Amino acid sequence: MVADPKGELKKLFSDPHSEERHRRYQEMAALEREEMKAYIKDRKAEFLSRYGAILSDQRLDLVVEKVITEELDVNSAFEELIATYYQIRGFEKSFMERHGIEITLDEEAMDLLLTWVVKEDKDITETLSTLDSLFEPALQLIRDKTGVSNFSISKEGVDNPEDYFNKLVTEVYA
């Protein structure tokens, strides 16, 4: 509660970009994030049994981010994140069906994609389509040269696929 609402409002209007007010806001936002994270961690076993996905600390942070920035309840935030997680896993399966090459995104690559969706508001369908068009030709070249048709894709392969696959193709053909 504010002791003098009119006085506080007057201060706010007189200096809307106050460094002190901004600092206090940042502290409160950080505190809210930590409290939400603690709440979710306390219920971690429940969420694991309900959603069946691995709940890493980074994914926990993404759920908290969704709760706070999108003003979602915890269950909705989990459901959206898990839906995206399974969409990415579905991409791996469909890649095999379309190209005859098995790919598995490692956990760091998965976390990077989830982070892009939550924090950068990237469209996952468009992102996966782009990755498909970048992964396929390089992996076809490597498969044709080596006979290997099963690949684990690292965070680097997702974050900078052109350089990552250029390096792999160069190593195979060297």
Order of helices and strands: HHHHHEHHEHH
* Overall pLDDT score: 90
Number of strands: 2
Poorly predicted regions: none
**What is the number of independent domains?**
1
Biggest sheet, spatial arrangement of strands = 1-2
Rg, please? 22 Å
Q: What distance lies between the first and last C-alpha atoms, to the nearest angstrom?
A: 70 Å
Protein described:
By secondary structure, the chain is mainly α. It has one domain (20-173). Helix content is 78%, strand content 5%. It is built from nine helices and two strands. The protein has helices spanning 5-14, 19-42, 44-51, 57-69, 74-99, 107-119, 124-146, 155-159, 161-173; strands at 102-105, 150-153. Strands 1-2 form a two-stranded parallel sheet. Helix 7 (124-146) runs parallel beside helix 9. The relative contact order is 0.08. The model has no long low-confidence stretch (mean pLDDT 90).
Keywords for this entry:
single chain, 174 residues, mainly alpha, two-stranded parallel ribbon, 5% strand, 9 helices, 78% helix
How are the secondary structure elements laid out?
Elements: H1 5-14, H2 19-42, H3 44-51, H4 57-69, H5 74-99, E1 102-105, H6 107-119, H7 124-146, E2 150-153, H8 155-159, H9 161-173
Parallel strand pairs: 1-2
